[in-house]
Amino acid sequence: EAGVTQSPTHLIKTRGQQATLRCSPISGHTSVYWYQQALGLGLQFLLWYDEGEERNRGNFPPRFSGRQFPNYSSELNVNALELEDSALYLCASSPGLAVPYNEQFFGPGTRLTVL
Amino acid sequence: AQSVAQPEDQVNVAEGNPLTVKCTYSVSGNPYLFWYVQYPNRGLQFLLKYITGDNLVKGSYGFEAEFNKSQTSFHLKKPSALVSDSALYFCAVRDRVGYSTLTFGKGTMLLVSP
To answer: Under a CB-based contact definition with an 8 Å cutoff, are residues B25 and B93 in contact?
Structure first.
């Protein structure tokens, strides 16, 4: 069974540009989560999608947005990039709301560098 | 609001010795608790979780954790450390209500020396 996949592996952008990160969950999983892992800050929750709906959002500005597609894959968009957006962005999936205590399965991440 | 504290940035232990990585949490109700491990340049891997029942939870790679409700702790333990256990360990908590999400601690780097 394939795990969570993310693309691209690395992304280099300049300040003010937009970045798009993609995630494919494990087959059968309906929930997708996005996290930001910046140096020294641990994992910060960004967004949670389930069945195409945004279920929860972390304390991030509106220029961080995303969506979930009918096949449950997801996209994270970051507009007007700032230097401090440089981080590892991790995507995770889980079976969904019917199993709230299930662990999340993480992808390898996308390393975003903003110059 | 829910929160997790991992009071040690780094834990050093010699191979073959027991290890403990500490975690305390705060939630409004009853928690779901998780431990994850992250190897360099990799995503997080699930180790174990507490949902309900037995306070001692056994997980992958010989790790275990003890849920202590009175002390709001969920410390990760292993009887005999391996050099290959060296990695970054994260504790996480989730409240049981509504659209609650996982809140992670800042992580503890475990270094096991030969």
So the answer is: yes
Longest CA–CA span in chain B (Å) reads 46
- Confidence at residue A41, expressed as pLDDT on a 0 to 100 scale: 77
* Residues in chain A closer than 8 A to B94 (CB atoms): 100-101
State the nearest Cα–Cα gap between B50 and chain A, in angstroms: 9
For residue range B53-63, what is the model confidence (pLDDT) as tens digits? Answer: 889 999 999 99
Find out whether B48 and B58 touch, Cβ atoms under 8 Å. Answer: yes
**Chain A residues interacting with chain B (CB cutoff of 8 angstroms):** 4, 33, 35, 40-43, 45, 48, 55-56, 58, 90, 92, 100-101, 103-109
Q: Look-up: residue for tokens 């996982």? A: B102
pLDDT, tens only, B4-31: 999 999 999 999 999 999 999 999 888 9
Out of B42, B100, B104, name the one closest to residue A42 (CB).
B104
Cβ B43–A4 below 8 Å, yes or no?
yes
Alpha-carbon gap, residue B44 to A40, rounded angstroms: 16
pLDDT in tens, A53-105: 999 999 999 999 999 999 999 999 999 999 999 999 999 999 987 777 889 99
Q: How far is A60 from A58, CA to CA, in rounded Å?
A: 6
Contact A34, A76 (CB under 8 A): yes
> Quick check: A74 and A61 in contact, CB under 8 A?
no
Residue type, B100: S
